[in-house]
Structures are given as C-alpha cells and as structure tokens.
Amino acid sequence: MIRKRNIKIVATLGPASSDAETIRALFEAGADVFRLNMSHGSQEDIAGRHRIIRALEDEMERPIAILADLQGPKLRCGVFADGKHTLETGARFRFDLDPAPGSAERVCLPHKEIFDALEPGARLLVNDGKMRLRVEDCGPDFADCVAENSGDISDRKGVNVPDVVLPLAALSEKDRSDLEFVCNLGVDWVALSFVQRPEDVHEARALIGDRAAVMVKVEKPAAVKVFDEILESCDGIMVARGDLGVEMPIHSVPPIQKRLIRGCRNAAKPVIVATQMLESMIDSPVPTRAEVSDVATAIYEGADAIMLSAESAAGSYPVQAVTMMNSVAEEVEGDETYRTIIDASRKIKRDTVADAIVHAARELAETANVAAICCFTHSGTTASLVSRERPSVPIIALTPFAETARRLSLSWGMTCATTGTVERFKMAVVKAARIAREMGLAAAEDQIVVTAGVPFNVSGTTNILRVAPCDESLIFSAEPG
Fold it and tell me: Considering the domain 8-72+170-339 in this protein, what is its CATH number?
C-alpha cells in the first residue's frame, strides 16, 4: 500500500482504537506510525496493541513504526478539604510541603525539588495554565504567591514551572520500568517527556542502547533554549505544542515550531508536529477550518510527520480523523506552491561524501526524468540524508534489517523494504529495479537512481551512485559493476 503523500501520519492508540479491526482501519486510512501512550493503559494493554500492529505488519508486508511515549514526571498539587476553591486576581496563596488538606489559602505541593529551584518572580501554572500564580517569596519548603488571574484550584491538578530548570530527572521510576518493558517488547522509537537538558537524553540513551531510536518531546522552555544541543544528542524531535503553549506565551509557539522543524531538516533527523491538530474531531466528524489550516502549515513547513493524539485514541471518530489528515496532506502536496516552498527552504550544509552523493541523486532525479531514488542503507543514515533533500520523486529505502526499515517509516517521503544481504553493486541495482517495479513506483521503461556503499554491508560507506534502467535485461547488458 503506497501512500500518495510524503509526510507521515502518527496515530495514537487508546480506548477508542485498541482492537485489531480499528487499528487495521486506521492503517488503511493513512496511519504510518502508531503511538503507544505510556501515560494511559497498563503494560498488558500496551503489549496487546503491539501484537496487533506486528500482525498487521506481517499481513500488509510493509514496515510499520511503533512509537512508545513515556509519561515523564508528573507534578501535581495535593488535595483540598473542600475539593475546590476559587482564587480571585490578586489573591495570596501558599504552596508548601505540609500534607494536610488544603484550603483557600494554601495547599501541599509534594515536590521539594520545585522549592529548591524557585526564585521570586517565577510562575506556577495550575491546571494547564488556567490558574497562573507568581512567586513573591519562597524558601526550602514554601512558596508564597499572588494570583495573576481568577480561576479554580482543586484536587491533584497539574503544576507547570516554566521559568526555572527543575532538578528533576526526565525519567521517573515508572518511566524506567516502562522503558525497559517497551524496549524488550520491540518498539522502534521511544519518546522522552520532561526533557530540560542534553544530559536527560544521555541518561535515557544509556538505558536504551541500540534497542530503539530516541525521540525528544520539546515541551519545556528550558529545552527550547538548548535545542541545538538536545537535537545533537537524539534521533528525532516531537514539537509538543500543548505543553509549550502552557509554559510559554501562546503566540511564541508558531515561530518555535518553524525553527525546530528547520533545525531537524538541516540535521537530517525526523520531526513530528503534535498536539491538538484536529482537536474538534474528538467529538465532531469534521474539523474546523483553523485546524485544517494548522495541519497544512506543518506540511508546508516540511515536517516529517503530523500526529493525532486524543482524536484517534479516545475520540468518537478515530478513523475519520486519520482520513481527514490524509486528505489534507494529499491536497497540500498536490499544490504547486508546496514544491516551491519546500525547494526554497532547502538550506543544507554539505561536507561529506554521503552528503554530496544524495545531493547529486536528487539533482539527477529531478533533471533526468528518473522515477525513484533507491538507497541501500544499514543504519538508515543514507536514507535520512536523501529524505532531508526532500526530492520530488519517491524514495525507496532498502535494508537487510527490519528494525531499520521500521524506524525509517517515520521519515518524510520514505517507502521502506527489507532485503536479503547484497554482496555486489550490480545485484543491488537489479534488486532495486525489481522492488521499484513491484511497488508500482517505476515501470520497466523508467530509470531509477541507486545509491550505495562499497564495500557492501558496511555502515557509513555511501560512496557510489548510478542511474539505471528498470529493465533487468538492460542492467545485465551494461558494463560490469
């Protein structure tokens, strides 16, 4: 099943989409990657969804990426004696470590790390920012605040601390258990929450090893400030706009999204734009025009993937949400303005042989009427470099490793296939031509561009490029290779 678009769609699974029939329908509607949210559902639930996806993958004979999204530390206030209180603008309120039920004047905030990091002037945002308080005085076990707006505060509401770097590890004990579980299960990507610094990524990478690729959810102002260092330390980025919009001025999120997408493209690392993309489709069979425009913007910017969260996990119209996102993507990528924007935004620093090879492959494909670019890859690096070029022809990634094919399924424009071990370049060309024809991406009279490395089966050796006919008899009649 070949998509008629380059951008990928990530669908989150949940109560509304946990059975085999619905997951299959989501895939057929356009889902390329399935997200398993470790914040909801037991490990047994997650394992069941994983089994269904892998069975679907075998049936469809197409690699499907699975992304496990770790919960991260959850900062919440304590409970109140009366359940809920309304604070008026200017009201004074204290957070402390006293476990006694709260009142209209105070409540427990059972996270000493917050008090250790707070300074006067810092903000505490409660219940997704609906209640905003500013710290006037603080100590090792208290924070005296003033309410900046009127609102309710109630039991166990989430607390965001946007103005300081908290001395908290990105991995909680639950995350560590979930991390080991999903790596042993065999997921392809692990998404890290609450990342504030590159060291958070290094810690997770040490635990993951080479069992999965590491994706960082950029959802904290501290992560935005050191984004370049974080990007260097991970394999991919998720622009988590929901939390960014809580912790930062909402009007700053669109330019941050653009900057993060551009940075990921330059680094040849996939980037997902996430959160509230078709939010109204949780309850409605059609989205708003503003939501459709938001999805289109991410596509025009050249993101690798766009993601559905509650829309597909808990909404009333999960399949319709994927169908709508697929339709928007096809329409946008069919617009002549799309190619103009993508080409104009291609600003790549090229300083390696592999960079030069894939750049030449794109130039050849777009000037010599080539049907597809076929790249042989072990680790996925060469294919990612081709994806970074955003060519106007299909990209076929050929690899002997199912794990590599699955991870690459998240990348822009990538159609992946697993192959047996190839020892000679000529046989690689033959195999590429055959697969391109079988996929329906090229006909016998077409030409393809093939990139590979010699010697074969050695990572990081991309050093050869060939324009070849898709007719195998013509390949064998050509000069030895």
Answer: 3.20.20.60
